[in-house]
Amino acid sequence: MVNPEKHETMIAFGPVSSRRLGVSLGINNIPDTKICSYSCVYCQVGPTHQYSISRKPYYPPELIFSETEKLLSGTSGSAMPDYLTFVANGEPTLDINLGKSIRQLKSLDIPIAVITNASLLSDDSVCEDLCLADWVSVKVDTADENSWRKINRPHKGIDFTRHLQGLLHFAKHFPNKLQTETMLAAGFNDPPEILENTAETIHKINPATAWISIPTRPPAVKHVKAPDSEIINQAYQIFSEKGIPTELILGFEGTETGFTGVIEEDILNICAVHPIREDTMQELLRNNQAERSVLDKLLKEDKIQHLRYNNHSFYLRKHPKAL
Hints:
The protein contains ten helices and 13 strands. The protein has helices at residues 61-73, 98-105, 124-130, 145-152, 160-173, 192-205, 229-241, 263-270, 278-287, 292-300; strands spanning 12-18, 22-27, 35-36, 50-51, 83-86, 112-116, 135-139, 177-183, 209-213, 246-249, 276-277, 304-309, 312-317.
């Protein structure tokens, strides 16, 4: 377990505007080094530094609760979150205490969301923990094994057939709001026959909404690009023709971030899991009544990096590599 006295990344961050959830207060329950069962080519947090499929304790649930409660105490009015969302440096279900944390956070009377890559749903304990949440989004980038290996780059211990069986089993038994998200990357999972297969699987999952999204932030693999508009429209039509409630997520989610008043912490901890676009950064500086020199200092100290993607500037926290 991470030493509570030595954790560097803010566990609770935001609230931030979310393409999925309105206003979301993020909860990062995985430590600084990215720990994940996948290393998706489009991941906004960068490459996976530590592959894992073994659930372990990280932050104590009591610490996650206290950090979340503390951040909420400085939030009011329209900035109050619609959801408390587990969205981590890696895969949040790798935290063996996820269920305990959800139970404790329930006392704050704000719905709990979890965004998962769905890779561990063959584990009954993962399903039990996720069933405590009010809202879950599962990744279904493809239902074809070859394209799955190319786009998601899974841990070698994950069996594709068991992965799909676990996903369908969870979907059948989850009692609350279930969503799917399919990230389209040009040349990886966008041929018509793959899209048909993906849509068929999502139809079996029967989500409240299936999102089709594209990379809008700097990806882990630089050459990854969004498909062209014709292919995006084709994907939408294929999903819709199967009776799936489908929405496209193609644009930027806005500049409202919420702020704590400690500008360096705001910048470092939001962009640890949520790259900050230039206009959002300017809004964050204004909200904190801070000068551009704060940002320049963090860049000079090599704590964050400046990236360009699709003609926009982004700022992303530099993560330490695993030893």
